[in-house]
Specification:
The chain is an alpha/beta fold. The protein has 17 helices and 16 strands.
């Protein structure tokens, strides 16, 4: 996540745009990764979680505590809690000693070797049955067996561990989320609840890890299957060109570099780009005489990107084609009234002037650096339009009317013409596989990061086409 000297002041509205309530495993993974990018390590978060878990246990004033731990980070949370319980509480850690542990869990286990904590490893169900007295005398059992990333019914020997805990008279405190099949008298959730009935504990995650885009967003990309065939990566149709011939081709290249397998450009203007499929539209500009062909192409495409280099005289054709598109990214000259809408999902990617055209009753603040004011206006407009808006600016705002993110990546050199076309194409490719809001968040983040890379090399001499080759580095190459 970019740490710029000129950071947007979000202090006055951070709470306003912070989500509350139940958080999914996928969203929590994003937040954790963004927190690490902001300088808070996974071990720091685990330490805070362990302390919060220990405090929850101590509310029962126990004499004997049994912490049952798996091999993942949830087990590490339990082991960290045990260190905070070593003074004044008879504490035993019963941990699965079979298979690989997560690195953080291994470090927590190593730290326990120097603590006043009894360690009882188990490999089999028989091992657990030999530890039955520990379950019988415990006042509190801490459930740190399996975390949010697991699914299905626990297998042996964990199934035996769950049964023994359930049969005990002890109170059971679950670390973050109860292990499937285990009862819980209290659920100590870290940061935000994952299931109903949880008590959330603040573990020090920066608020910007929630409300700003970061590398965590990229974890939402679906894995590419080794058995994939041509077309599985998505087919994108670009509708544009006429007055401005380069724009649709920049969008098309952005879509290809963001993972689309097939990209067609339907335009009156031909550019010799061999990676793109050209669909010829006769004449000087796109008109209603082209709608029959465009509808046929749109119905075949997974996503349509429309408006790049189109000119204001083609809006009738845009309105005619839009209802036949499953998903659309409307950009540039398509952003006019009446506002077009896709059949399923719609993303609008306006700059300030285009936003004023389509959302006049939700005016932007006069100060372009007022990220909070811009976000309020964009959120209201997105809710009214029932769509996702990616409002471009010094700080991009992405909102679906309910959720809002701020994107701080990018460089002033990206003010050069054509960078928005690349962004629209990247958004279109991601929309083939992701919901509109998530696609727009990732597209804004990675395009801005690509711009930062180019600016380091070329400064104010950046070309929009320079961005294209750096998109895959940010989107698909995992950086250490």
């Amino acid at each position: 996540m970019k740490c710029s000297i000129m950071r947007p002041d979000l202090s006055t509205c951070a709470e306003e745009f912070t989500e509350t309530g139940i958080v999914t495993h996928e969203r929590m993974r994003v937040i954790d990764a963004n927190a690490r990018a902001l300088g808070v390590s996974g071990l720091q978060l685990m330490e805070s979680a362990g302390r919060a878990l220990a405090d929850a246990v101590l509310e029962y004033t126990p004499k004997n505590v049994l912490v049952v731990c798996g091999r993942g980070n949830n087990g590490g949370d339990g082991m960290a809690a045990a260190r905070y319980l070593q003074h004044g509480v008879d504490t035993t850690v019963c941990y699965l000693d079979h298979g690989d542990r997560s690195p953080s869990c291994s470090l927590q286990l190593k730290a326990l070797l120097g603590c006043r904590v009894r360690l009882s490893p188990f490999i089999s169900s028989d091992d657990l049955r030999s530890l039955a007295p520990l379950f019988g005398k415990a006042d509190v059992i801490v459930d740190a067996l399996l975390g949010t990333g697991t699914a299905g019914v626990p297998r042996e020997p964990l199934a035996t561990c769950i049964a023994m805990a359930n049969a005990s008279q002890a109170r059971i405190v679950a670390a973050d989320i109860p292990t499937s099949g285990m009862r819980a008298d209290r659920i100590c959730a870290f940061h935000r609840p994952k299931v109903e009935g949880s008590t959330a504990a603040d573990i020090g995650i920066p608020i910007e890890a929630e409300i700003c885009t970061g590398p965590g967003e990229i974890t939402l990309l679906p894995a590419r299957q080794r058995t994939r065939h041509k077309g599985d990566g998505g087919e994108v149709l670009i509708i544009g060109g006429g007055p401005y011939q380069g724009a649709p081709y920049l969008a098309g290249l952005g879509a290809l570099r963001a993972g689309a397998d097939i990209v067609r450009v339907a335009s009156p203007v031909f550019e010799p780009v061999p990676d793109l499929i050209y669909e010829r539209l006769f004449g000087d500009r796109i008109g209603e005489e082209h709608t029959e062909l465009l509808i046929a192409l749109a119905e075949h495409a997974d996503v349509v990107v429309c408006g790049n280099g189109l000119g204001k005289e083609s809006h009738g054709a845009v309105l005619a084609v839009a209802p036949y598109c499953k998903k659309v990214v409307f950009d540039a000259d398509a952003l006019r009234l009446p506002i077009p809408r896709a059949a399923q999902e719609t993303v609008y990617t306006p700059h300030a002037g285009e936003f004023a055209r389509i959302a006049g009753k939700f005016p932007l603040p006069g100060d372009a650096t007022d990220a909070c004011g811009r976000a309020r206006a964009a959120r209201a407009a997105a809710k009214n339009l029932r769509a996702t808006i990616l409002l471009k600016g010094p700080v991009d705002v992405i909102t679906d009317g309910s959720r809002t993110r701020f994107n701080r990546t990018g460089d002033p050199a990206m003010s050069v013409g054509g960078t928005g076309d690349v962004l629209a194409g990247v958004t279109g490719a991601l929309l083939c596989h992701l919901p509109a809001f998530e696609a727009a968040c990732i597209a804004a983040y990675v395009t801005g990061r690509a711009g930062e890379r180019v600016a380091e090399m070329r400064g104010e001499g950046m070309l929009a086409s320079d961005l294209v080759n750096h998109i895959p580095e940010e989107l698909f190459v995992r950086h250490a």
